[in-house]
Amino acid sequence: MRRWHSLLYLSLSFAFKTVPRLTRLSSPPIFYRPKQTPLQSKNRILHGVRSMSVRADGGERGPRGAEGREIEGVCAIMVRVSGVPGGSAEEFCDELIEQGADTASLEEQLGEGEEASPIFGSLSAGNIWNKVTVKVYFPPDSKAIAICERVAAQVGIDEGTSFKAEEVETADWVANIMDSYQPTQVLPDLWIIPEWSEPKDLSARNIILTPGLAFGTGDHPTTRLCLGFLNNHQEVVKGKSVLDMGTGSGVLAISAALQGASRVVGIDVDPISVAAAIRNANLNNVQNTVTILESKESPELEGFDLVVANIHMHVLMSLKDSLGDATKPGGTLALSGILVDQIKSIEDAFASVGFGAFESKEDEGWVLLRATKL
C-alpha cells in the first residue's frame, strides 16, 4: 500500500539521512494521532497532524507557523530524538503534540546486526519496539530542541537520549507532494487521481483530489470501506440526499455526487478541510450538487436518505444524537473509523437513538457498520 501519510510528514527521505554508524533504522515508521484510537494501516499509525493550510483560492501550502501564516523557505523544524525507550514513546509523543509539535513519528532503532521487527496491531496492546527514534516536526518559529528536552525530562527519558534539529525547506515539501501521490486504484472501477496526474483508465470513475490537505485519499481502510459501500449500494445513493459528516478531503461527498446523488452536504469542524473539500468538489465539477460547510455555520441537519460518517469512534459516540436526527426514518447510516472490537459499543450506542438492522464489513481490522433508522 502506498504511504498516504508521507506527504503529511514532509519527506520520508529524512528518515534515512544522517544515520549513526552503529545504528540503523528499520522501515516503515509508525505514526500516531494523540489520545485517540490510532488511525492505523498495517504497521503505520498516524499521530497528530494539525498544521496544514490552504490559500483562499485552494492552492497548496506547507505547514503553518504559530499564527497560521504561510511559510516561505523553511516550513518546519524537524527534531530527531534518538534512544527513546519504546514503552515511553507514546506518552512522549502525546506530550510533544500538547506542547506545540505538529506531527511525530517513531522508527525502530537497532544495534549493529539486529533484525528489524515489524509491528502490527494496537500499540495499547504493548506492540512496540524496545528502542525507537522519534522524529517530531514543529512550526519554524518554535524552540523545538528546548521543547523536546523539557518533555523528555518530564516523562523521565532524558538520560540516554540525544537531540538533533534540522530545517525543512518548502521546496522539499512541494517536491514530496508530487512524488508521494500517484494515481491509486481503490476499487476495480474507481481511481483516486492527484490533481497533477492523468487518469490511467478513462473508462473508470476517476476522483481528482489535491492530496495532503485533509484526510481521505483512498488509501486508508476506512476510506476504502466507505467508497466501496457507496459504489456497491446504488439503491441508497442514486437520486438520494446524502450527508457526509467529517468530510475531510470531500472524497466521499464527491463519490456520492458522481454516482447520482441528488443533493450532498459535507460537514467538517476543520476550516482547512472545508477549503480542501470545496476545491476538490470544483475539480470534479460537482459543486452544484455538493455543498461543503464548516460545522459552526451548518444549519440543523435532518431528513437525509443516507448519512455517512468516517470519524474516530469516540467522536461517533458523541455525535450519535446528531447523526440520528440527520437520518430520516427508513434512511441508512454508514459508520466507519471503527475497530473490530468496538462494534458492540457502537451498535449499542446507536440502537439507543433509533437505529437497527446492523451489518458490518471489515478491512484490515477496521469496520464499516451499516444501520437503518427505524
Order of helices and strands: EEEEEEEHEEHEHEEEHEHEHEEHHEHEE
Strand order of the largest sheet: 16-15-14-17-18-20-19
Rounded to an integer, what's the Rg over CA atoms? 21 Å
Which runs of at least 5 residues are low in confidence (pLDDT < 50)? 1-72, 119-126
Q: Quote the distance from N terminus to C terminus.
A: 38 Å
Oligomer: single chain
Q: Please count the helical segments.
A: 9
Question: Mind summarizing the main beta sheet?
Answer: 7 strands, mixed
Count of distinct strands: 20
- Considering DSSP H and I runs of 4 or more, what fraction of the residues is helical? 10-25%
Q: Tell me, rounded to a whole number, the average pLDDT.
A: 77
Backbone structural class = alpha/beta
Q: Roughly what fraction of the amino acids lie in strands?
A: 25-35%
Shape: globular
Could you name the key traits of this structure?
33% strand, six-stranded antiparallel β-sheet, 9 helices, 24% helix, alpha/beta, disordered N terminus, 20 strands, 374 residues
What does this structure look like?
Strands 16-15-14-17-18-20-19 form a 7-stranded mixed β-sheet, with helices on both faces. Strands 1, 2, 7, 8, 9 and 10 form a 6-stranded antiparallel β-sheet that branches. Strands 11-12-13 form a 3-stranded mixed β-sheet. It is an alpha/beta fold and 374 residues long. The N terminus is likely disordered. Strand 19 and strand 20 form a beta hairpin. It contains 9 helices and 20 strands. Helix 4 runs parallel beside helix 5.
